[in-house]
Amino acid sequence: MLDRLQELHDEAMKKVAEAEDLNDLKEVRVAYLGKKGPITEVMKGMGKLSAEERPKVGQKANEVRESVKSYIEEKEKAFEEAAMLEKLKKESIDVTLPGRPVSKGSRHPLTSVVETIEDVFIGMGFNVAEGPEVETDYYNFESLNLPKHHPARDMQDTFFITSDLLLRTQTSPVQTRTMEKHEGQGPVKIVCPGKVYRRDEDDATHSHQFMQIEGLVVDEGIRMSDLKGIFATFVKQYFGEERDIRLRPSFFPFTEPSAELDISCAMCGGKGCRTCKQTGWIEVLGAGMVHPNVLKMGGFDPDQYSGFAFGMGVERFAMLKYGIDDIRHFYTNDKRFLNQFTRV
């Protein structure tokens, strides 16, 4: 058996030396070192040897296996290094070539509009508050004077996750959550920016996902005139000193009385044109005095406290300020559109 092992060793080493690539080496490895290889077969017959011969044959078999294995690994390494050198020759890099320019990003126009609006209200003493986009039915509807089966819920087609969980249709739930944190003690003065979701058909002026900024002020002695004063300051700072405002009666379940805020048309200066439908005014947001039921649900005594709330669409404000005619431009990631706002 010792002679047979030496023959297998010499034969295997010759095969390794003659191998021309990694596939040839793999075949040699399987043929001589595999479970069905001749070296393994020799070792299986060791049980028939005498006690004196068995250790010598076992030692020789291990030496042969290790010798062949080491030679195969050495040859594999040589083939791999040669292949890498050949690859580097073919893929040589000309370091003298100029680099490719990297385009810089910028703030999205909606982000810029949100930050601008926040800055205006922060300058008037407001704080910025945020809340979850996945809301409960209670905070999104019931706490805002919209009990179950209230017909006004039809105004806001809702994405329900379960019978109680939904994607918020407005940022108003943040107002209730903030009032609860104050535990019935004023003042409260916040704006709440964030994404909201409604089952709208996407077109030039509607989207199933959009952004809102809502505001809330609660304190003793708050009146409708305070709301009008806030709007007058905000509109002139955001749209320009030449813009006028007016309030029109409206209806919202969570405010009473309620109003729509109109601003004078920038295109015609209030004289009437296609943009303002010949009225001289453009509607921008809804507002009103906080309904007593909403104050109660937030933990405030409506006999002691009063307040006003308002809500605006960020996309609408961006479209009005920059003359954008299609809301879908904000969400298509078209660089031709976004590059126009690199300095916004």
TrEMBL record:
Q: What InterPro entries does the database record attribute to this sequence? A: aa-tRNA-synth_II (IPR006195), aa-tRNA-synth_II/BPL/LPL (IPR045864), Phe-tRNA-synth_IIc_asu (IPR004529), Phe-tRNA_ligase_II_N (IPR004188), Phe_tRNA_ligase_alpha1_bac (IPR022911), Phenylalanyl-tRNA_Synthase (IPR002319), tRNA-bd_arm (IPR010978)
EC annotation from Swiss-Prot or TrEMBL: 6.1.1.20
The record describes its quaternary structure and partners as: Tetramer of two alpha and two beta subunits.
Q: Which cofactor does it need?
A: Mg(2+)
Q: Which CDD domains does the record associate with it?
A: PheRS_alpha_core
The annotation note on the cofactor reads: Binds 2 magnesium ions per tetramer.
Point out the coiled-coil segments of this chain: 61-88
What is the protein's major site of localization? cytoplasm
Give me the gene this protein comes from: pheS
Protein name per the record? Phenylalanine--tRNA ligase alpha subunit
State the Pfam families in the record. Phe_tRNA-synt_N, tRNA-synt_2d
Task: Output the GO biological process annotations, alphabetical, semicolon-separated.
Answer: phenylalanyl-tRNA aminoacylation
Entry's localization field: Cytoplasm
* Transmembrane parts of this sequence: none
Q: Which residues bind Mg(2+)?
A: E256
Q: Which SUPFAM superfamilies does the protein's record reference?
A: Class II aaRS and biotin synthetases (SSF55681), tRNA-binding arm (SSF46589)
MF terms (GO), sorted A to Z: ATP binding; catalytic activity, acting on a protein; magnesium ion binding; phenylalanine-tRNA ligase activity; transferase activity; tRNA binding
Its UniProt entry gives the catalysed reaction(s) as:
tRNA(Phe) + L-phenylalanine + ATP = L-phenylalanyl-tRNA(Phe) + AMP + diphosphate + H(+)
- Kindly state one GO CC term assigned in the UniProt record: cytoplasm
Homology family: Belongs to the class-II aminoacyl-tRNA synthetase family. Phe-tRNA synthetase alpha subunit type 1 subfamily.
Residue ranges constituting the Aminoacyl-transfer RNA synthetases class-II family profile domain according to the UniProt record: 111-320
Task: Note the superkingdom of the native organism.
Answer: Bacteria
What organism does the UniProt record list as the source?
A: Salipaludibacillus aurantiacus
**Which keywords has UniProt assigned to this entry?**
Aminoacyl-tRNA synthetase, ATP-binding, Coiled coil, Cytoplasm, Ligase, Magnesium, Metal-binding, Nucleotide-binding, Protein biosynthesis
